[in-house]
């Protein structure tokens, strides 16, 4: 027993040899001690050998070997030994049941857990609080919150472990709303929440984005002086991050004296998810000076590189992950593929995807969606079929990706085939996003009437995104009459979104309905609405340059303006006149030309042409959909300068070469 506590494996083997040599090896008490020693030393095969060779066994022998197997991951063996013990007529006690219950959750014999529960009720052992708590934990791990609740309510004596197990059960089952009441009830019963109870409750409030209840627990932590206890601080940060309160999360982070990787990862991941990519990279660089990032850190920081379309930084992260051996982690590998997709490096994304040895459904879905974003629908379909051929069945997310790909490539028949297969072959009920893809697809292929009828017969209420897809289709196919009808639905659902008024104004402008444009301008202007200001950015030599519409304050502002003036002049010489095609809300004719030259996408493209050597692609990212004029300008610049321009907007990628775009005029 002394050697077991000191983890002296070699000494234990020597003592075992002496016991056998001097004839003590067959005594029950000695064998029990040996089983415990070998089990705790992770030599479970030796423990099993001692157990099998025992001439006589008592309840301690059985409990030791069952618990040893469970703690060493031999869950099926633990359950088999429990059943064998029962069949041999050996009396079971609470320790036996406590030993086998963790194995019941993890083994192929989970139904034995119900048997254990029934036995504990018949024998009265369930009255022991420790056994009740173990049953709570077992049912919680099996996601059976109803059984957990029943046991909890029938327990004669509950301690803080009981309450924490119940909170955890509700959280795992997604019943976050029940946790607040239970936490309050716990206080009324005079049970003081410990660190585990507090972190469990905060996990629930993070999942439910319940800031009010999360702040209440935060207050309790402050009053009891445990706010800076690391697990509590990390849970508080996670709660504030999930609720979108990054300043509060950062405040807690800055006041924790001893941070661990969870602390850093929580805040870095929060910045990435909140589209605060620069803050995420700043914090990541600080972390490098204090702690070694792990695989989770990589999975947290890579979305930041993706959101910035920062291929250079993404490659640095890739190299770091390779050096540390993190590519074996699926989360890291998938995040890398996603990063390359969103940085416009589709070939690199596919190469990495093909190298993955353990592709899961997320891996396939990311790559399929990537082809869709880049307008390569046929490749997306081929990959989707390859995925099914590998034995991985699609879910709602992968169907969303393939429908999106069909939509952006105008593959109408294929889109209908996949949409119908959701219900008929895979028993997946289409959601709003799937209907939105189909509307977009029908509009893309010019079937506006069919799209309208499809919306009218949808089994779920269409939201504004559905109607806006049809409105954009009306713009592409110049159907003003239907556009007016659809716009009424859109304005009714989202009356404050000025982008939709701009869209209708441009539809009127393209049809040269100038009186309708003027009336719409008056309607919008009278309500104090203005077009939202967009921004675009481009990375050159490791530095991100951000451009805002009509902002000429960049150090190279004069050079950019001269270049764009030359582009505008040459476009007009070749018959392009944006003033006749596109309307700007709130802009009069005097500023129209200047505004068109000052769109953020064009400023970023111009900067790229002026600062990147010939032969290098110009990669620009925009935080909203690219406008029609910028789209035309990018096509023209790609031909005029002989450059490849890769523009990522909020909806898809546009690859401009030789005056053509991969979207073929629909986005």
Automatic annotation (TrEMBL):
Gene Ontology cellular component terms for the protein in this record: chloroplast
Keyword Acyltransferase: no
PPR repeat copies, ranges: 27-57, 58-92, 159-193, 260-290, 360-394
Keywords, in A-Z order: Repeat, Transit peptide
Residue span, DYW domain: 575-667
Domain of life where this protein originates: Eukaryota
Gene Ontology process terms (BP): chloroplast RNA modification; cotyledon vascular tissue pattern formation; leaf vascular tissue pattern formation; phloem or xylem histogenesis
Pfam families: DYW_deaminase (PF14432), E_motif (PF20431), PPR (PF01535), PPR_2 (PF13041)
Matching PROSITE patterns: PPR
Record bears the keyword Repeat: yes
Molecular-function annotations in GO: RNA binding; zinc ion binding
Transmembrane intervals: none
PANTHER family, alphabetized: DYW DOMAIN-CONTAINING PROTEIN (PTHR47926:SF362), PENTATRICOPEPTIDE REPEAT-CONTAINING PROTEIN (PTHR47926)
Protein name: Os01g0205200 protein
Organism: Oryza sativa subsp. japonica (Rice)
Taxonomy of the source species: Eukaryota, Viridiplantae, Streptophyta, Embryophyta, Tracheophyta
